[in-house]
Amino acid sequence: MKMTFRWFGVDNDSVTLDQIKQIPGMTGVVGSLFDVPVGEVWPMEKIKALKETVVNAGLELEVIESVNIHEDIKLGLPTRDHYIENYKQTLRHLSKFGIKVVCYNFMPVFDWTRSDLAKVLPDGSNVLSYDHNKIQTIDPNKMLEDMDANSNGYDLPGWEPERLKTIKTLFTAYQDVNEEKLLENLGYFLKEIIPVAEQCDIKMAIHPDDPPWSIFGLPRIVTSKERLEQIVNLVDSPYNGLTLCSGCLGANPNNNIPEIVRYFGGKGRIHFAHVRNVKIYEGGNFDEASHLSSDGSLDMFEIMKAYHDIDFKGYIRPDHGRMIWGEKARPGYGLYDRALGVTYLNGVWEAIGKMKKQK
Ligand SMILES: [Mn+2]
Asked: Residue 207 catalytic?
């Protein structure tokens, strides 16, 4: 595995590349361009500048998270072809700068959703939290205001104000799109994109929906092993792969993460691993947690062992962390707890490898 760390750019992140480089075992960052509107072609010069900044800091940039999908593609509107052509061009541009994996998601309207961006835990740290009842009863517009007010001044990726201005129109547009239609629209997109991804040697890696169930009555399809199976079968190519996010899928206790890792990893379809823990409560509620197994509901040893058993050679990153030690950062994306997460995951990985050799 190659350990990486998500980074939002010089003007967009409280964490610096120098800090990331000093985390033991770190090989590179997972980057993105946040100033290109969704659906437009990523300009070469902007990709080049990002690549140079990262490489000059002694780190690699081989994974992009995310190149977001225009809503017209998810809705299956006639205008989608224009946006799909732009997406292909973005892939061609990214390939010129050594990008190997592009993470993306196919969630309608909203990206990841939480009811609280800073729930205080008994130890004084705070975490992202999801209360199903709150989400069921909240007005989506009110939720947007709350997200904006509590994001420590950062635009949250996937929650860009520009895109969300049109939220009422989008809700109306999705009235005719059920899960099967959404899956069909994903298939249309993949059949167009994957041949280009193959030419560019860029592995496409879809990220699960977060949380992995429908919210606000909108369809969601990247939610379970069965759905992932349908998705990888939409186009049978290793370039049509997965970002396996343990915390997202793991919020539903029916998803057996080690089994899912073994199954799709064995098929060579996992290109990017997001590894984090989550503490699940009754009724679909959950808090994010430190990476440690005993702090959450997922067995991180078993998850890492599954990756080790399939001889995972792809990219991995700690996912969200708690906010600790007084840090002020993007919700979920502080330096300290994610760095602790890296060190913990590396320790588990080393132990698994050495114990296998001693057998
Ligand atoms: Mn994730």
From this structure: yes
2-358 domain in CATH 3.10.110.10?
A: no
Q: What's the rounded mean pLDDT across residues 273-296?
A: 94
CA distance 4 to 9: 15
Catalytic annotation present for 248: no
pLDDT of 167 reads: 76
Q: Is 245 a catalytic residue?
A: yes
Nearest Cα residue to 265 out of 218, 308, 310, 222: 310
Q: What are the residue ranges of helices labelled H in the chain?
A: 17-21, 44-56, 71-75, 80-95, 132-137, 140-149, 161-164, 167-173, 179-200, 225-234, 246-250, 257-266, 300-309, 336-358
Check 87, 104, 174, 333 and give the catalytic one: 333
Q: How far is the CA of 113 from the centre of ligand 1 (A)?
A: 12
Q: Residue 246's closest CA among 272, 226, 227?
A: 272
Q: Which of 319, 336, 337, 344 is catalytic?
A: 319
Residue 169 token pair: 């129109």
For residue 343, the CA-to-ligand 1 centroid distance in Å is 18
Copy the structure tokens of residue 270. Answer: 């996992």
Put simply, whether the predicted model's pTM sits higher than 0.85 gets the answer: yes
2-48: pLDDT as tens digits: 999 999 999 999 999 999 999 999 999 999 999 999 999 999 999 99
- Give residue-wise pLDDT tens across range 166-193: 777 888 889 889 999 999 999 999 999 9
Q: What are the extents of the domains in the chain? A: 2-358
Catalytic annotation present for 274: yes
Total count of residues recorded for the chain: 359
